[in-house]
Amino acid sequence: MSEHAALIAPAAAEFTAVLRGIGEIDLAARTPCAEYDVRALLNHLLYWGPWLEAAGRKAAPPAVSSGEAESDLVGADWLAAIEGRTARLVELFGAPAAWEGETTFGGTPLPASMVGYMVLDEFVFHGWDLASAIGAKFTVRPDVAEAVYAIALEIGDQARSMKVYGEEVAVPEDATTFERALGASGRDPGWKR
After folding, report:
1. How far apart are CA 106 and CA 109, in angstroms?
2. Which of 112, 154, 159, 161 could staple 165 via S-S, CB 3.0–4.6 A?
3. Name one GO molecular function term (predicted).
4. How far apart are the C-alpha atoms of 151 and 180, rounded to whole Å?
């Protein structure tokens, strides 16, 4: 759990590099997340980022007037907004204390480590989703790949029941650790745009 704190910054760096490669023309591109194109996935990140940050601070969730589907948060400054949120999440979850004890997410009490898992997953899995959608390279350090694979195995059933992960995707026997993590999270490592 708290040992994952050191993985947040490198995962966020790769995630941010992908974000910087997204152009206006890419916003309508489909992603491996069937319900999201690039714009909708960016909207998802912008919508849930404040919730993750509040949970990391062990503070009350943000007040919202509409749900994710009704929100349109991808304005002209979307990149700066996500980069700023990412930097704050790195600061919070890069510290072992954020992974300890209890917090709430959307009013639901849960272990703080679970929110840390969500942050790492957002950076790695959604970073891959976005990179795949725009045809960009996505590099995952071996220790980060091992961590997200272990997380996907640990929380997979719960995440699937909450519709956070899709049904597990079978991968070849010679699949890399990261490809196994993708499959465990319901993603097809061989997905093509």
Report:
1. 8
2. 159
3. metal ion binding
4. 12
One pLDDT digit (tens) per residue for the chain, 193 residues: 568 999 999 999 999 999 999 999 999 999 999 889 999 999 999 999 999 999 999 998 888 878 888 899 999 999 999 999 999 999 999 999 999 999 998 788 999 999 999 999 999 999 999 999 999 999 999 999 999 999 999 999 888 888 889 999 999 999 999 999 999 999 999 999 8
Encoded tokens for 122? 């957002």
Residue 190 lies in a domain: no
What Å distances lie between residue 49 and 85, 122, 135, 188, CA to CA? 6, 9, 25, 25
**Long-range CB contact pairs, 159-166, < 8 A, 24+:** 159/185, 160/186, 166/34
Query: Total structural domains in the chain?
Result: 1
What is the pTM for the complete model shown? 0.95
Residues 116 and 129: their CA atoms lie apart, in Å, by 19
Hey, how many other C-beta atoms are within 10 angstroms of the C-beta on 172? 11
CATH number of the CATH domain containing 132 = 1.20.120.450
Residue at token pair 């795949």: 132
Q: Which pair of tokens denotes residue 39?
A: 């714009």
Residue type, 83: E
The verdict on residue 141 lying in a domain is yes
The 8-class DSSP code of residue 97 comes to G
